Sequence to fold (328 residues):
Amino acid sequence: MAKNARIIGTGRSYPEGILTNADLERMVETSDEWITQRVGIKQRHKAAEGEYTSQFAVAASRQAIERAKIDPAEIDLVICATVTPDQILPSTGCLIQTELGAHKAAAFDVVAACSGFLYGLTLANQMIRGGQSRYALVIGAEILTRYVDYTDRSTCVIFGDGAGAAVLAADDDAERGILATRIRSDGRYAEQLFAPGGGTRLGHSAESLAAGDYYFKMRGNELFKVAVRSMAEVSREVLEEAGCRAEDVKLFIPHQANQRITDSVADKLKVDPSIVYSNIAYHGNTSSASIPIALDECIEAGRVAEGDLVLLASFGGGVTWGGVLLRW
Ligand code: ACO
Fold:
């Protein structure tokens, strides 16, 4: 009989450095009032020079593994969702695997921007259900601030750094664990959020560097509409697949992109605002790390109990989007 994939441990980590709205007021023409009202962010973590993505991924993973009460050597799958890897080759997943001592795992990266963690959960779920994995580690980790142009006020106020991780185990209990997953993408919207530089197309010339080709470029207004529509749609799809109703959900964690996006999605789904989790005020948008960081915070705060229905939804550059429904 196919086993269910259940999360048995989570963890999170972020740089000590913090960039406040007051700091940004000194860098670009913006204000705490504008950022708070239009996005909902007060501060974000920012990695110091010399810090790199896998450091935070490893710290979050160690915490998740410890809480899962397993030996890292038992992990047979490591998926790292990131758009800000340590280096081009090898994958950040392989670097994390080595640091953790998860030597028998298959390790790789998933590049799906803010939806990366839910893409990772979907893959791990399938590997576990297919009998190819018993303990899977899924991580979302980013140092986005390296790719942010701190002269562009429309992007530099949004992004922050951090990592979150979850250990999934194969479980016989058919009632608990991941009930439904759905991942989607539409490359026709690629230029709503993109960083064209640093790859084979534009190369690594001094001109490309000087032009800031590797910085994130965003059409925030267009992305906003796609985000609300796609997260609401995918949430309804996973609920329908599992035969559940939005009113049954006890905890809803949407990707933390903008408080107004979160509010609009919750409104469209007609869920009670009290079940919607938000930490964007103090983390900003950490892309693939946003959902696992939020999930870990909710568990620590006792916001999720055994048997609760938990809904996760995301969207991001690509564009990509996804939904995962779990019974805790
Ligand atoms: N401070 C002050 N004014 C600003 C700032 C700022 N930081 N940024 C933009 N403005 C100005 C604009 O210049 C514009 O001025 P104008 O009317 O004189 O031209 C005005 O504010 C309105 O600009 P909009 O872009 O229409 O503002 P909007 O309300 O859409 O908010 C935002 C912009 C916050 C970017 C919003 O569109 C948004 O959150 N979009 C989604 C973005 C997102 O989630 N991206 C991440 C995707 S996840 C991933 O894959 C990593």
Notes: The pocket of acetyl coenzyme *A is lined by residues 30, 34-35, 38-39, 113-114, 153-154, 157, 193, 218, 220-221, 223-224, 227, 257-258, 285, 287, 316-317 (CB under 6 Å).
